């Protein structure tokens, strides 16, 4: 069942239930109130008749006094202490025959209600004692059919049923209209999703009106997600294009040397050696490049890191030792506090430090220094070199993938422009930061800031 139909059916059923309950209460209250009114009227009438009888004893006949109080269907009669009807006025022979006269001995009014046909029609019989000097001398008997209740009941029932039906129909229509309003944004989202599924192209939802409700929020969030997806797709496309471009040069070199060998053979030893050397060096470059691609891909997703408390002095000194051997260069280590430790993924942190120190060594022939420090919120690993530095215009782009200041020079140094983006991603995974300051010709300083309360992702 469609959600709109579901909402419609449920709300209508619920409203119908409420209407039936309310209408039943209205109907029952109406019946009770009407009946009570008639009862009170009869009671009042009996007291009035008694008063009139006492006041104007000698004026007019008793019949004349009773007549004004006669209801449209009923009788009034006075019964003497022998149980005989002394006088009576009536316009309902049936009632006269049906109800036998009765003398009440006690000074107490009585009230009876009978249903002559067992149906809805009711007859009120009211008996009031007539006393004289403290002695009961007769009974005033009033009988009345409760007028109009049958008709009133039917009319009321009709009106209430009509209103209930009207309410249900209006609720159905209103529900349809309302659920359409509610469902429209959801249908839009479903439509967009289906289009995306078919075309494979992210598409935003058109938001007609800016409302502050949850559905608008849903649409806005959906559009934000599409924006992000767009950016990611664009980045992916860019990456593929950059990566293919980067791979093209070494592959062209390899291919041309392979062609040369094929055409000229291996007779010319010098040329053959040169070709093999170049093929080897370019193949190594491709190998390194693919490793870098994989590293970058790994750091771009929110991977689960293996957080451990790392004592930084020993950790950095170990890395420094390895790098000194690998690069045959000396590195200087400084720290004011040997106890500084940080929560981090050991392998990833080592990778960042190597990327930064590798740059410092590659782009400086001078001394490279590594500092381990801390401030209130961060543990900081600072790598300082006094090398060629980075021109001010390039600093903003330095963390972009494949960005190299001097492409020709980078080729000599084997750089691919992927080190810093990888380092930035790793720092992000650690909820940390990477800051770079540089002056062309003077040197570069890279600071890795790790939060002291590093939270595992
Ligand atoms: N310490 C530094 N001194 C001078 N230039 C630097 C320094 N660090 C980075 N750069 C500049 O920033 C560019 C990008 O650095 P990045 O580490 O991302 O790439 P790369 O070193 O060229 O290649 P690789 O992917 O092998 O690290 C470098 O090509 C270089 O021009
Ligand atoms: Mg680098």
TrEMBL record:
Record localization: Cell membrane
A GO cellular-component term linked to this record: plasma membrane
Highest taxon of source: Bacteria
Catalytic activity annotation: ATP + protein L-histidine = ADP + protein N-phospho-L-histidine
Coiled-coil ranges per UniProt: none
Membrane topology: Multi-pass membrane protein
Domain HAMP: 180-234
TM regions (residue ranges): 12-38
CDD domains on file: HAMP (cd06225), HATPase (cd00075), HisKA (cd00082)
Enzyme Commission number(s) of this protein: 2.7.13.3
Alphabetical keyword list: ATP-binding, Cell membrane, Kinase, Membrane, Nucleotide-binding, Phosphoprotein, Transferase, Transmembrane, Transmembrane helix, Two-component regulatory system
Main location, first listed in the record: membrane
The Histidine kinase domain, residue ranges: 242-454
Gene3D superfamilies: 1.10.287.130, 6.10.340.10, Histidine kinase-like ATPase, C-terminal domain
Enzyme class label: transferase
Protein name: histidine kinase
């Amino acid at each position: 069942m469609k959600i709109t139909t579901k909402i419609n059916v449920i709300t209508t059923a619920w409203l119908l239930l409420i209407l039936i309950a309310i209408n039943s209460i209205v109907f029952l209250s109406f019946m009770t109130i009407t009946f009570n009114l008639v009862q009170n009227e009869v009671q009042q009438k009996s007291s009035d008749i008694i008063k009139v009888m006492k006041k104007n004893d000698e004026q007019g006949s008793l019949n004349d006094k009773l007549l004004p109080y006669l209801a449209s269907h009923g009788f009034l009669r006075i019964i003497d202490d022998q149980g005989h009807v002394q006088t009576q006025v009536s316009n309902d022979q049936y009632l006269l025959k049906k109800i036998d006269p009765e003398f009440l001995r006690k000074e107490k009014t009585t009230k009876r209600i009978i249903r002559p046909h067992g149906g809805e029609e009711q007859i009120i019989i009211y008996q009031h004692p007539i006393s004289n000097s403290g002695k009961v001398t007769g009974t005033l008997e009033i009988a009345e059919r409760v007028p109009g209740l049958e008709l009133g009941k039917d009319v009321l029932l009709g009106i209430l049923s009509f209103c209930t039906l009207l309410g249900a129909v209006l609720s159905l229509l209103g529900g349809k209209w309302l659920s359409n309003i509610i469902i429209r944004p959801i249908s839009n989202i479903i439509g967009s999703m289906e289009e995306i599924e078919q075309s494979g192209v992210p598409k935003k939802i058109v938001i007609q009106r800016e409302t502050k409700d949850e559905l608008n929020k849903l649409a806005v969030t959906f559009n934000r997600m599409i924006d992000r997806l767009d950016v990611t797709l664009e980045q992916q496309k860019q990456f593929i294009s950059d990566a293919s471009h980067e791979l093209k040069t070494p592959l062209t070199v390899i291919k041309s040397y392979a062609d040369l060998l094929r055409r000229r053979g291996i007779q010319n030893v010098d040329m053959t050696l040169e070709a093999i050397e170049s093929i080897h060096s370019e193949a190594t470059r491709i190998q390194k490049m693919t490793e870098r691609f994989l590293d970058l891909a790994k750091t771009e997703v929110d991977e689960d890191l293996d957080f451990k408390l790392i004592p930084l002095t020993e950790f950095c000194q170990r890395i420094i030792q390895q790098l000194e051997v690998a690069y045959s260069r000396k590195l200087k280590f400084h720290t004011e506090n040997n106890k500084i430790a940080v929560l981090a993924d050991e392998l990833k942190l080592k990778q960042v430090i190597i990327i930064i120190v590798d740059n410092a060594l590659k782009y400086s022939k001078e001394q490279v220094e590594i500092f381990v420090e801390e401030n209130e919120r961060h543990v900081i690993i600072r790598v300082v070199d006094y090398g060629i530095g980075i021109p001010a215009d390039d600093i903003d782009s330095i963390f972009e993938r494949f960005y190299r200041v001097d492409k020709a020079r980078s080729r000599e140094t084997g750089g691919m422009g992927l080190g810093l983006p990888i380092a930035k991603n790793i720092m992000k995974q650690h909820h940390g930061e990477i800051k770079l300051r540089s002056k062309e010709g003077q040197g570069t300083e890279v600071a890795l800031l790790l939060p002291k309360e590093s939270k595992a992702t």
